Amino acid sequence: MHLYILHKTHYRYPSPVCESFNELRLEPLTNEWQRCESCFVSVLPTAQMRKYLDLNGNLVHHFEMTDDHSRLLIESRSTIVTKKRVDFNNLPYGSTMKSLREMEGNPEYRAYLQSSNYIHLNPEIWRMAVDVQGNSNDVFQTAYKIMEYIYSNFEYSISTTSVSTHASEVLERKKGVCQDFAHAGIALCRSLGIPARYVSGYFYDATRFQVMRGSEASHAWIEVLVNGSGWLGLDPTNNRVVDHNYVIIGSGRDYHDVAPVTGSYFGRLPESMQVDVQVKRLDN
Description:
6 helices
């Protein structure tokens, strides 16, 4: 599938700000499931960009603005080719929960088994995870049940959380958006010893009627590690296995590692922030 993605973020400040230092994670990765043909990231006022990989292997654009400015426009335009990622007739069932013990001592996966900025593992979350697991002894089946549980029992509500909402609060209130549902899913998976990471990106709503929740903005989902099959994507917001309709920007322990825009500046808080995301198919 050939996709075009436009991501705009527009900040307006009540008075001029300065000394702005920022990191952008807006360029799609190239991996075995997707190929980023082109990506142009720009800012206004203009600034020189420096690009590098972070510790999680995500592409980062860094820029600085020392002069006064009253607005900031960040824009990313990308074209990506995706290919089939999962065989729905041969999902990776068969890996037992006991197989997770092999990963506990592996430093490559340790960060995805522990608490992180937005996710704190505690006995209450563990008890909830055990209840959701039920009698399942299969890693993928358990993770799938967690996805289904969040989709069926949590309310998708844009106005009830913020980017700083913690997974514990989401699990208690059972409300939120894709970021919150991803954090909740990761917390439940990690509580059971399933390595789980946060994925940021976009997806193309093939229904073309905006039926899929979260299609109007950047999206978030989770990936779980199944021994022998690698990382598998699950989307608790839409109750589906991640396929070629999804585009990955990056992954990490939680939202803190893959936020689209992070930084600091000297000045007052923005009076407005507008985000516009468009995902279009080019090969209809």
